[in-house]
Amino acid sequence: MRATAEWLASIGLEKYARRFAENAIDLSVVCYLTEEDLKELGVPLGHGCKMLHAIAELSAAAAVKGSAASEPLLRDGSQSGAGFSFLRTDTGIGCG
After folding, report:
1. Distance (Å, rounded) from C-alpha 15 to C-alpha 19?
2. What pLDDT, on a 0 to 100 scale, did the predictor assign at position 49?
3. Which pLDDT tens digit goes with each residue over 6-57?
4. What pTM value is reported for the model?
5. What's 24's DSSP letter?
6. What is the set of domains in the chain, with CATH numbers?
7. So what's the pLDDT on residue 27?
8. Contact status, residue 70 vs residue 87, Cβ threshold 8 Å
9. What is the distance between the alpha carbons of residues 28 and 72, in angstroms, rounded to a whole number?
10. For a disulfide at 25, which of 20, 57, 70, 85, Cβ 3.0-4.6 Å?
11. Of 59 and 10, the one with more pLDDT
């Protein structure tokens, strides 16, 4: 879950790291979160939009680097070391 906390910190929303951990949300599932899921977690609309936008940015960065990327990119373009890709092949958004 450390990689999830790092990702949240990279977008300025580290205060949600504990909530994500308590709900077993790691980087392998973060891409599948919907606005409704974020509401259920108690994330306000503005922060939820920021999270969803960051997921889309990660997807775009992964697409540019190629779908064979072995590690997700943080918002600053660095690798998280988590060992999986954020490219979701069915929609082009999220994890793969």
Report:
1. 8
2. 95
3. 999 999 999 999 999 999 999 888 888 899 999 999 999 999 999 999 988 8
4. 0.65
5. T
6. 1-96 (1.10.150.50)
7. 83
8. no
9. 10
10. 20
11. 10
Residue 56 in tokens: 């889309």
Burial class from Cβ neighbours inside 10 Å (0-12, 13-18, 19+) for residue 42 reads: exposed
Give residue-wise pLDDT tens across range 61-78: 767 776 554 555 565 665
pLDDT value, residue 73: 58
Beta carbons of 94 and 39 less than 8 angstroms apart: no
Exposed, middle or buried: residue 75 (CB in 10 Å: 0-12, 13-18, 19+)? middle
Amino acid at 61: A
Tokens 């994890």 locate to: 95
Query: Which bin fits 88, alpha (ψ -120 to 50), beta or left (φ > 0)?
Result: beta
The single-letter DSSP state of residue 85 is: -
CA distance 14 to 11: 8
The structure tokens 């997921």 sit at 55
